[in-house]
Amino acid sequence: FPVTIPPYSGAKGFGYSMSIQNDNEMIVGAPFGEKRYIYGNNQGEAFHYVLSPVTKEWILISEMGQYFNMDTLSGAFGYSVKISGKRAAISAPFETFYLDDYPLLEVANQGKVYLLEKDQFGYFTNRTIYYPTSVSLLDGERNYGTQLNIFGDILAVGVPFSESVENDFIEIYNLYCPPLSAPLYRDWE
Fold first, then answer.
1. Which tens digit of pLDDT belongs to each residue from 49-97?
2. More confident residue, 104 or 95
């Protein structure tokens, strides 16, 4: 197989995270790069590729972050990626979070996870955003989505770098439930 290279020079961290399914579809994260039209360190991007059955080359289908605006310039979109069936999960663990009670108050490095589903043309465009479910200024939870995984209809989101080591956790969601509901399971270490 030929080597796959970043589609442009600003895709720093290309290959930091990768996920392949069925030997012919791949998502590659570049969380430390700059998107073409939004300049800022660690904006990040994720790339969707398919393997050509004829040439055996990976063909870029889309830059997945181009379908929506990121909330912060240093979100590190693509830090962790996972493709499973018609779904893709992509983390941005350094994105700013805004509290519902205080919409102008930013909580830095809180993180988000973007769950994308394929449209009828095979592009990952339909999105749902998952936030930490128990955010408060006192929780000290940071970097939501540093690691993630999809298995069946379950989304697992890791938060291994909260301010207090005793509070590291994993949230597990049923993808048929609304994302702002409580997770099915929260594993405290």
1. 999 989 889 999 998 886 655 555 668 889 999 999 999 999 988 887 6
2. 95
Helices and strands counted in the chain (H then E): 0, 14
Q: Per-residue DSSP letters for 50-102?
A: EE-TTT--EEEEEEGGGGS--SSTT--BTSSEEEETTEEEEEETT--EE-SS-
Contact between 59 and 47 under an 8 Å Cβ cutoff? The reply is: no
Q: Contact 144/132 with Cβ under 8 angstroms? A: yes
Per-residue pLDDT, 169? 76
**pLDDT attached to residue 138:** 46
Q: What are the b/e assignments for 125-162, b being 16+ CB within 10 Å?
A: beebebbbbebeeeeebbbbbbbbbbeeeebbbbbeeb
Helix (H) / strand (E) element for 49: namely strand 45-51
Q: How many CA atoms lie less than 13 Å away from 103 in the CB half-sphere?
A: 0
Residue 51 and residue 55: Cα distance in Å, rounded? 8
Q: State the residue for tokens 């018609």.
A: 86
**How far is residue 153's CA from residue 57's CA, in Å, rounded to a whole number?**
31
Residues ≥6 apart with Cβ < 8 Å to 151: 84
